[in-house]
Design a protein that fits this description.
Beta-Lactamase, five-stranded mixed beta sheet, five-stranded antiparallel beta sheet, 2 domains, 12 strands, 396 residues, Alpha-Beta Plaits, alpha+beta
């Protein structure tokens, strides 16, 4: 509601200013029409002959005076019509009257050369810039009126620049503007209120939808991400493997599956407690990630077991080099709660498509190879071989 009120007020101010500007432009157009209807040749000749405009013989301007007076009489609201010019007296610019053609009592008529003491700074500026200017409304004993001054175009490049002033009576200027503004404001305010209602309804719907989407996203994330380490879990690993296999088939390359089991983790977890074990598990996951390329996938598939998917592999040797890198990297102690804890890693390696094409079977082969590496003394890697099957199932 506050926004609606502020919007309505802003709109009201804008419309008011627009209407006010339009009325002022109309007065300027009216004054220009009078200026263009007058024959200024006598004025130009008189200005060229005298050193200053106030030295002109008034009789030379009688014809222009009559033209100006007749133009003013054509509009009942025209009260005064006159010519002014600027003069620098050495201290500040003065505005002086050149000719007052108003059909008013002699006491109200300004004389040639009379200083216009009430001239505003904006009027002085208009004379300097030779631009049209509208001033008012002003209220005095004559009523409420507005002054519109425009350049006498024939004097723009002449020796003396002169402006034509027309004072027009405007009774109830502000009320007149407000009458034009009232209906648009009322309609606009109604529209703003209705629009705010729609915005509120849409915002409420969007908020509810966002809540549902957020909940769905969180559920989807929980289904695909291991909450302990932030790594992908077994659910998303299958999709990654199928994508990697398709890319390998197109590129005629290999994909390596590395099954990583953390050595001595169970002993540390039992000895120091689950809180330390959880911290150690997170550090181990971070270190594994630091040893891999950005395009490789690392998934946690068990308590202390991880599967790493290496794509774009050229040879078995390339995969075994990475496996040795993991073994060496996991030997470096982990600093957890001011304790240097020693882990290790046993790694089993299986290769797509030379050893198996089915994802689950490939993971199984890598698991067998990892188990074989553990049997060989931990802290090492093994590449899957069929002969390992007998040892695995014998111990199962």
């Amino acid at each position: 509601m506050v926004l609606a009120i502020l919007s309505g007020l802003s709109l009201a101010i804008y419309i008011y200013q627009t209407q006010d500007t339009e009325m002022r432009d109309n007065l300027t157009t009216y004054a220009k029409t009078i200026e263009q209807s007058i024959d200024w040749r006598a004025l130009n000749i008189a200005l060229e002959q005298g050193p200053t405009p106030d030295k002109i013989n008034p009789d030379d301007l009688n014809e222009i005076k009559m033209q100006m007076r007749n133009a003013c009489k054509a509009n009942p609201k025209c009260h005064f019509i006159y010519l002014v010019y600027g003069e620098d007296n050495g201290q500040a610019q003065q505005v002086k009257f050149l000719l007052d053609a108003s059909d008013q009592p002699a006491s109200e008529i300004s004389q040639m050369g009379e200083v216009f003491y009430d001239a505003s700074e904006m009027l002085r500026s208009a004379i300097k810039t030779q631009k049209p200017y509208v001033e008012g409304p002003v209220t005095d004993h004559w009523g409420t009126w507005v002054s519109s001054l425009v350049p006498v175009t024939t004097t723009l490049n002449a020796k003396h620049f002169v402006m034509l002033g027309v004072d027009v009576g405007i009774a109830g200027w502000k009320q007149h503007v407000m009458q034009k503004v009232a209906v648009p404001i009322a309609v606009s305010l109604l529209f703003v209120v209705m629009l705010l209602g729609l915005i509120y309804q849409n915002a409420n719907k969007e908020w509810r939808l966002k809540q549902l989407t957020s909940s769905s996203s969180e559920l989807a994330q929980m289904a695909s991400i291991d909450l302990m380490t932030g790594l992908p879990n077994r659910n998303i690993l299958g999709d990654r493997m199928m994508q990697a296999f398709k890319m390998a088939d197109r590129a005629e390359s290999l994909v390596a599956v590395l099954y990583v089991d953390l050595d001595y983790f169970k002993e540390i977890n039992d000895g120091y407690g689950h809180a330390v074990g959880d911290q150690l598990l997170k550090r181990a996951a971070d270190r594994l990630a630091s040893l891999m390329r950005e395009e490789d996938t690392i998934a946690r598939v068990g308590g202390d077991e991880f599967i790493i998917l290496l794509t774009d592999v050229s040879t078995n040797t390339q995969a075994l080099v990475v496996a040795q890198k993991i073994v060496d990297g996991m030997k470096v102690p982990f600093n957890v709660v001011d304790k240097a804890l020693q882990l290790g890693a046993s790694v089993g390696v299986a290769i797509y498509p030379t050893q198996e094409r089915r994802p689950n079977h490939l993971i199984h082969f890598a698991d067998i190879a990892m188990y074989y590496a553990k049997r060989q003394g931990r802290g090492r890697y093994s590449l899957y071989d069929e002969s390992m099957e007998k040892i695995f199932y014998k111990n199962e």
